[in-house]
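Renewal narrative, Specific Aim 1. Our central claim is that a sequence can be written position by position from structural information alone. The example that follows is taken directly from our test logs and has not been curated for this report. It begins with the C-alpha coordinates describing the chain, in the order in which they were read.
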Protein backbone atom coordinates (compact mmCIF):
# COMPACT_ATOMS: atom_id res chain seq x y z
CA UNK A 1 0.00 0.00 0.00
CA UNK A 2 1.37 3.38 -0.98
CA UNK A 3 1.74 5.75 1.99
CA UNK A 4 0.55 9.31 1.43
CA UNK A 5 2.46 12.20 2.92
CA UNK A 6 0.80 14.79 5.10
CA UNK A 7 -0.30 18.03 3.49
CA UNK A 8 2.21 20.81 3.00
CA UNK A 9 -0.14 23.25 4.74
CA UNK A 10 -0.23 21.05 7.84
CA UNK A 11 3.57 20.71 7.82
CA UNK A 12 4.03 24.47 7.47
CA UNK A 13 1.83 24.94 10.52
CA UNK A 14 4.01 22.51 12.46
CA UNK A 15 7.17 24.38 11.44
CA UNK A 16 5.65 27.67 12.56
CA UNK A 17 4.70 26.07 15.86
CA UNK A 18 8.29 24.94 16.41
CA UNK A 19 9.74 28.32 15.48
CA UNK A 20 7.38 30.00 17.92
CA UNK A 21 8.41 27.54 20.63
CA UNK A 22 12.06 28.32 19.88
CA UNK A 23 11.49 32.05 20.33
CA UNK A 24 9.68 31.48 23.62
CA UNK A 25 12.46 29.17 24.79
CA UNK A 26 15.26 31.63 24.05
CA UNK A 27 13.40 34.56 25.59
CA UNK A 28 12.87 32.52 28.77
CA UNK A 29 16.58 31.81 29.03
CA UNK A 30 17.70 35.33 28.12
CA UNK A 31 17.98 37.92 30.89
CA UNK A 32 16.23 41.27 30.75
CA UNK A 33 17.44 43.88 28.27
CA UNK A 34 19.20 45.84 31.00
CA UNK A 35 21.51 42.90 31.62
CA UNK A 36 23.16 42.96 28.21
CA UNK A 37 25.58 45.61 29.33
CA UNK A 38 27.00 43.15 31.86
CA UNK A 39 28.63 40.79 29.37
CA UNK A 40 31.84 39.19 30.61
CA UNK A 41 34.03 36.20 29.92
CA UNK A 42 34.39 33.94 32.94
CA UNK A 43 38.05 33.12 33.73
CA UNK A 44 37.06 29.69 35.16
CA UNK A 45 35.17 28.45 32.12
CA UNK A 46 35.00 28.76 28.35
CA UNK A 47 31.81 30.76 28.54
CA UNK A 48 30.50 34.25 28.01
CA UNK A 49 28.36 35.52 30.88
CA UNK A 50 25.44 37.85 30.12
CA UNK A 51 23.75 38.60 33.40
CA UNK A 52 22.71 35.19 34.73
CA UNK A 53 23.02 33.53 31.35
CA UNK A 54 26.07 31.41 30.53
CA UNK A 55 26.87 30.90 26.85
CA UNK A 56 29.39 28.33 25.60
CA UNK A 57 30.34 27.73 21.98
CA UNK A 58 32.71 25.38 20.24
CA UNK A 59 33.52 24.10 16.75
CA UNK A 60 34.20 20.42 16.19
CA UNK A 61 35.42 17.86 13.70
CA UNK A 62 34.25 14.29 14.20
CA UNK A 63 33.87 10.89 12.65
CA UNK A 64 31.10 8.37 13.18
CA UNK A 65 30.07 5.25 11.26
CA UNK A 66 26.85 6.98 10.21
CA UNK A 67 28.28 10.29 8.94
CA UNK A 68 32.00 9.62 8.33
CA UNK A 69 34.00 12.86 8.75
CA UNK A 70 31.98 15.95 9.59
CA UNK A 71 32.53 19.59 10.55
CA UNK A 72 30.16 21.41 12.86
CA UNK A 73 29.64 23.70 15.80
CA UNK A 74 27.37 24.26 18.76
CA UNK A 75 26.18 26.94 21.17
CA UNK A 76 24.98 25.92 24.63
CA UNK A 77 23.09 28.36 26.85
CA UNK A 78 22.61 27.62 30.56
CA UNK A 79 20.82 29.57 33.25
CA UNK A 80 19.50 28.75 36.69
CA UNK A 81 15.86 29.77 36.92
CA UNK A 82 15.79 29.21 40.69
CA UNK A 83 17.79 30.61 43.59
CA UNK A 84 17.90 27.06 44.99
CA UNK A 85 21.22 25.61 43.83
CA UNK A 86 19.86 22.06 44.11
CA UNK A 87 17.47 22.77 41.22
CA UNK A 88 19.04 21.77 37.92
CA UNK A 89 20.06 24.55 35.53
CA UNK A 90 17.94 25.06 32.43
CA UNK A 91 19.73 24.88 29.10
CA UNK A 92 19.35 25.25 25.35
CA UNK A 93 21.64 23.78 22.71
CA UNK A 94 21.83 24.89 19.08
CA UNK A 95 24.08 22.76 16.90
CA UNK A 96 24.74 21.78 13.31
CA UNK A 97 27.15 19.85 11.12
CA UNK A 98 27.93 18.98 7.50
CA UNK A 99 29.58 15.67 6.66
CA UNK A 100 31.74 14.18 3.93
CA UNK A 101 28.73 12.05 2.91
CA UNK A 102 26.72 15.26 2.30
CA UNK A 103 24.61 14.68 5.37
CA UNK A 104 23.74 17.69 7.51
CA UNK A 105 21.86 18.42 10.70
CA UNK A 106 20.41 21.52 12.40
CA UNK A 107 19.29 20.87 15.96
CA UNK A 108 17.67 22.97 18.71
CA UNK A 109 17.08 21.50 22.18
CA UNK A 110 15.98 23.64 25.17
CA UNK A 111 15.20 22.05 28.53
CA UNK A 112 13.62 23.93 31.43
CA UNK A 113 13.34 23.06 35.13
CA UNK A 114 10.66 25.46 36.40
CA UNK A 115 9.10 26.54 39.70
CA UNK A 116 11.68 24.86 41.94
CA UNK A 117 11.66 21.79 39.66
CA UNK A 118 7.89 21.36 39.91
CA UNK A 119 7.58 21.52 36.13
CA UNK A 120 9.75 20.22 33.30
CA UNK A 121 9.55 21.38 29.69
CA UNK A 122 11.71 19.83 26.99
CA UNK A 123 11.68 20.69 23.28
CA UNK A 124 13.72 19.10 20.50
CA UNK A 125 13.54 20.42 16.93
CA UNK A 126 15.64 18.73 14.25
CA UNK A 127 16.06 19.20 10.50
CA UNK A 128 18.49 16.90 8.75
CA UNK A 129 19.50 15.20 5.55
CA UNK A 130 20.96 11.77 6.08
CA UNK A 131 22.74 9.37 3.74
CA UNK A 132 21.48 6.26 5.50
CA UNK A 133 21.38 2.48 5.16
CA UNK A 134 18.60 -0.07 5.63
CA UNK A 135 19.42 -3.79 5.77
CA UNK A 136 15.94 -5.04 6.57
CA UNK A 137 14.63 -6.32 9.90
CA UNK A 138 16.04 -8.74 12.43
CA UNK A 139 19.42 -10.10 13.48
CA UNK A 140 19.79 -12.21 10.35
CA UNK A 141 19.42 -9.38 7.83
CA UNK A 142 22.16 -10.00 5.24
CA UNK A 143 25.12 -7.65 4.88
CA UNK A 144 25.12 -5.99 1.47
CA UNK A 145 26.60 -3.04 -0.39
CA UNK A 146 23.33 -1.91 -2.00
CA UNK A 147 21.43 -0.90 1.13
CA UNK A 148 22.02 2.87 0.94
CA UNK A 149 19.33 5.52 0.54
CA UNK A 150 18.92 9.24 1.28
CA UNK A 151 16.22 10.82 3.41
CA UNK A 152 15.32 14.27 4.71
CA UNK A 153 13.65 14.62 8.10
CA UNK A 154 11.92 17.36 10.03
CA UNK A 155 11.11 16.24 13.56
CA UNK A 156 10.03 17.80 16.80
CA UNK A 157 9.30 16.44 20.24
CA UNK A 158 7.66 18.44 23.03
CA UNK A 159 7.31 17.10 26.57
CA UNK A 160 5.71 18.77 29.59
CA UNK A 161 5.80 17.10 33.02
CA UNK A 162 4.30 18.10 36.37
CA UNK A 163 5.48 16.80 39.76
CA UNK A 164 2.69 14.95 41.57
CA UNK A 165 4.38 13.35 44.60
CA UNK A 166 8.00 13.32 45.70
CA UNK A 167 10.22 13.23 42.60
CA UNK A 168 7.50 11.59 40.45
CA UNK A 169 6.27 13.63 37.50
CA UNK A 170 3.42 12.87 35.11
CA UNK A 171 3.41 14.45 31.69
CA UNK A 172 2.28 14.57 28.09
CA UNK A 173 4.37 14.22 24.96
CA UNK A 174 3.88 15.30 21.34
CA UNK A 175 6.05 13.73 18.66
CA UNK A 176 6.25 14.65 14.97
CA UNK A 177 8.38 13.09 12.23
CA UNK A 178 8.02 14.19 8.60
CA UNK A 179 10.31 12.17 6.33
CA UNK A 180 10.98 12.38 2.61
CA UNK A 181 12.86 9.57 0.87
CA UNK A 182 14.98 11.71 -1.43
CA UNK A 183 16.78 8.88 -3.21
CA UNK A 184 16.07 5.16 -2.90
CA UNK A 185 19.27 4.36 -4.80
CA UNK A 186 19.38 0.58 -5.32
CA UNK A 187 17.99 -0.40 -1.92
CA UNK A 188 15.88 -3.49 -2.72
CA UNK A 189 13.33 -2.90 0.06
CA UNK A 190 12.58 0.67 -1.01
CA UNK A 191 12.72 0.14 -4.77
CA UNK A 192 10.25 -2.74 -4.50
CA UNK A 193 8.01 -0.89 -2.04
CA UNK A 194 7.95 -3.92 0.26
CA UNK A 195 8.22 -1.98 3.55
CA UNK A 196 5.90 0.55 5.17
CA UNK A 197 7.22 4.07 4.68
CA UNK A 198 9.22 3.34 1.52
CA UNK A 199 8.16 6.78 0.21
CA UNK A 200 8.43 8.52 3.59
CA UNK A 201 5.44 10.17 5.21
CA UNK A 202 4.22 11.81 8.39
CA UNK A 203 4.17 10.34 11.87
CA UNK A 204 2.37 12.45 14.47
CA UNK A 205 1.22 11.33 17.88
CA UNK A 206 0.52 12.03 21.54
CA UNK A 207 1.72 10.16 24.56
CA UNK A 208 1.92 9.91 28.33
CA UNK A 209 5.07 10.10 30.43
CA UNK A 210 5.97 8.87 33.93
CA UNK A 211 9.24 10.41 35.05
CA UNK A 212 11.20 10.48 38.31
CA UNK A 213 14.48 12.38 38.53
CA UNK A 214 16.65 12.24 41.66
CA UNK A 215 19.97 13.14 39.98
CA UNK A 216 22.17 15.68 41.73
CA UNK A 217 23.11 17.31 38.42
CA UNK A 218 21.72 17.68 34.91
CA UNK A 219 24.99 17.30 32.98
CA UNK A 220 27.25 15.10 35.12
CA UNK A 221 25.28 13.40 37.91
CA UNK A 222 27.25 11.56 40.57
CA UNK A 223 24.33 10.16 42.59
CA UNK A 224 20.62 9.51 42.24
CA UNK A 225 18.92 8.44 39.07
CA UNK A 226 16.54 9.14 36.21
CA UNK A 227 13.62 6.75 35.60
CA UNK A 228 11.30 7.26 32.66
CA UNK A 229 8.47 5.39 30.94
CA UNK A 230 6.79 6.91 27.89
CA UNK A 231 3.88 5.66 25.78
CA UNK A 232 3.04 7.17 22.38
CA UNK A 233 0.19 6.58 19.93
CA UNK A 234 0.09 7.95 16.39
CA UNK A 235 -3.15 9.77 15.56
CA UNK A 236 -4.72 10.39 12.16
CA UNK A 237 -6.43 13.57 13.34
CA UNK A 238 -2.97 14.98 14.03
CA UNK A 239 -1.94 14.24 10.45
CA UNK A 240 -0.25 10.87 10.89
CA UNK A 241 0.06 8.66 7.80
CA UNK A 242 0.81 5.61 9.95
CA UNK A 243 -0.94 3.67 12.72
CA UNK A 244 1.29 2.43 15.50
CA UNK A 245 2.12 2.60 19.19
CA UNK A 246 5.53 2.95 20.81
CA UNK A 247 6.80 2.55 24.36
CA UNK A 248 10.20 3.43 25.83
CA UNK A 249 11.64 2.53 29.24
CA UNK A 250 14.85 4.39 30.15
CA UNK A 251 16.30 3.69 33.61
CA UNK A 252 19.55 5.33 34.70
CA UNK A 253 21.30 5.30 38.07
CA UNK A 254 24.58 6.80 39.30
CA UNK A 255 26.74 5.30 42.05
CA UNK A 256 29.49 7.37 43.73
CA UNK A 257 32.39 4.99 44.33
CA UNK A 258 35.26 7.08 45.66
CA UNK A 259 36.03 10.60 44.58
CA UNK A 260 36.55 11.12 41.66
CA UNK A 261 35.07 7.79 40.43
CA UNK A 262 31.40 7.41 39.48
CA UNK A 263 29.67 4.34 38.05
CA UNK A 264 26.78 5.14 35.68
CA UNK A 265 24.36 2.36 34.71
CA UNK A 266 21.52 2.30 32.19
CA UNK A 267 18.78 -0.09 31.14
CA UNK A 268 17.00 0.92 27.93
CA UNK A 269 14.15 -0.89 26.19
CA UNK A 270 11.69 0.10 23.50
CA UNK A 271 9.09 -1.52 21.29
CA UNK A 272 6.53 -0.75 18.58
CA UNK A 273 3.25 -2.36 17.57
CA UNK A 274 1.05 -1.70 14.55
CA UNK A 275 2.52 -0.46 11.28
CA UNK A 276 5.20 2.19 11.82
CA UNK A 277 7.42 3.22 8.90
CA UNK A 278 10.58 1.13 8.61
CA UNK A 279 12.83 3.98 9.79
CA UNK A 280 10.93 4.24 13.10
CA UNK A 281 11.51 0.64 14.10
CA UNK A 282 13.86 0.46 17.11
CA UNK A 283 17.47 0.59 15.93
CA UNK A 284 20.52 -0.81 17.68
CA UNK A 285 23.60 1.42 17.72
CA UNK A 286 24.43 5.12 17.68
CA UNK A 287 26.31 7.50 19.96
CA UNK A 288 24.35 6.85 23.19
CA UNK A 289 23.54 3.13 23.46
CA UNK A 290 25.52 0.32 21.82
CA UNK A 291 28.27 2.62 20.62
CA UNK A 292 30.41 1.00 17.96
CA UNK A 293 27.49 -0.28 15.86
CA UNK A 294 26.09 1.60 12.89
CA UNK A 295 22.73 2.91 14.09
CA UNK A 296 20.15 0.81 12.27
CA UNK A 297 22.37 -2.09 11.22
CA UNK A 298 19.96 -4.18 13.28
CA UNK A 299 16.29 -3.17 13.51
CA UNK A 300 13.19 -4.92 14.75
CA UNK A 301 10.04 -4.37 16.78
CA UNK A 302 11.81 -4.64 20.15
CA UNK A 303 15.21 -3.45 21.35
CA UNK A 304 16.97 -3.88 24.71
CA UNK A 305 20.33 -2.48 25.80
CA UNK A 306 22.24 -2.50 29.11
CA UNK A 307 25.45 -0.59 29.78
CA UNK A 308 27.70 0.52 32.61
CA UNK A 309 30.23 3.33 32.41
CA UNK A 310 33.02 4.13 34.88
CA UNK A 311 33.73 7.87 34.91
CA UNK A 312 36.77 9.59 36.37
CA UNK A 313 37.50 13.32 36.57
CA UNK A 314 41.28 13.63 36.38
CA UNK A 315 41.35 17.43 36.71
CA UNK A 316 38.80 20.22 36.66
CA UNK A 317 38.85 20.06 32.89
CA UNK A 318 39.82 16.54 31.85
CA UNK A 319 38.23 13.18 32.42
CA UNK A 320 38.27 9.58 31.22
CA UNK A 321 35.52 6.98 30.92
CA UNK A 322 35.37 3.29 30.13
CA UNK A 323 32.22 1.31 29.45
CA UNK A 324 30.86 -2.09 28.58
CA UNK A 325 27.40 -3.24 27.65
CA UNK A 326 25.25 -5.48 25.53
CA UNK A 327 22.05 -5.27 23.53
CA UNK A 328 19.90 -6.90 20.88
CA UNK A 329 16.74 -6.60 18.78
CA UNK A 330 13.94 -9.12 18.30
CA UNK A 331 10.64 -9.49 16.48
CA UNK A 332 8.83 -10.55 19.67
CA UNK A 333 9.79 -10.22 23.33
CA UNK A 334 10.06 -13.99 23.82
CA UNK A 335 12.61 -14.19 20.98
CA UNK A 336 15.35 -12.51 23.04
CA UNK A 337 18.21 -14.88 23.95
CA UNK A 338 20.93 -13.74 26.31
CA UNK A 339 23.62 -15.75 24.52
CA UNK A 340 22.84 -13.87 21.29
CA UNK A 341 23.19 -10.37 22.77
CA UNK A 342 25.79 -8.23 21.03
CA UNK A 343 28.64 -6.71 23.10
CA UNK A 344 29.92 -3.15 23.20
CA UNK A 345 32.93 -1.68 25.00
CA UNK A 346 35.14 1.35 24.72
CA UNK A 347 36.96 4.28 26.24
CA UNK A 348 36.36 8.00 26.04
CA UNK A 349 37.95 11.36 26.78
CA UNK A 350 36.06 14.24 28.38
CA UNK A 351 36.78 17.96 28.38
CA UNK A 352 34.73 20.32 30.55
CA UNK A 353 33.68 23.47 28.74
CA UNK A 354 32.07 24.56 32.00
CA UNK A 355 33.87 23.01 35.01
CA UNK A 356 31.39 24.50 37.50
CA UNK A 357 28.43 22.66 35.94
CA UNK A 358 30.65 19.84 34.55
CA UNK A 359 29.30 20.40 31.04
CA UNK A 360 31.51 18.12 28.95
CA UNK A 361 32.24 17.49 25.32
CA UNK A 362 33.19 13.89 24.63
CA UNK A 363 35.21 11.78 22.24
CA UNK A 364 34.40 8.07 22.42
CA UNK A 365 36.21 5.14 20.81
CA UNK A 366 33.85 2.15 20.69
CA UNK A 367 34.12 -1.50 19.75
CA UNK A 368 31.44 -4.08 19.02
CA UNK A 369 31.33 -7.51 17.42
CA UNK A 370 33.32 -7.15 14.18
CA UNK A 371 32.69 -3.40 14.17
CA UNK A 372 33.93 -0.15 15.71
CA UNK A 373 33.20 3.56 15.73
CA UNK A 374 34.40 6.96 16.90
CA UNK A 375 31.97 9.58 18.22
CA UNK A 376 32.08 13.24 19.21
CA UNK A 377 29.26 14.97 21.06
CA UNK A 378 28.28 17.29 23.90
CA UNK A 379 27.02 16.01 27.29
CA UNK A 380 27.36 12.45 28.54
CA UNK A 381 26.00 9.47 26.62
CA UNK A 382 23.49 8.87 29.44
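The sequence written for that structure reads:
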Amino acid sequence: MRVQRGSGQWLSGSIWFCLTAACVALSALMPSATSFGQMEVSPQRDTVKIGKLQMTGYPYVFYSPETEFALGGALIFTRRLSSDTTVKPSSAMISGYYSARHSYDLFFNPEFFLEEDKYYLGIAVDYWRFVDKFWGFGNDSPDSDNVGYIRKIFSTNVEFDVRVVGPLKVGVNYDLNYTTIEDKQTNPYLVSGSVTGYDGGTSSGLGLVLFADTRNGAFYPTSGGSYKLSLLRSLSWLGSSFRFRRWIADIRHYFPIADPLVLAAQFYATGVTGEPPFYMYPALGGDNQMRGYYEGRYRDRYYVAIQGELRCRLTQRWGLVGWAGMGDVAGTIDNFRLNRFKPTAGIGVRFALDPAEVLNVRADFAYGKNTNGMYFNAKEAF
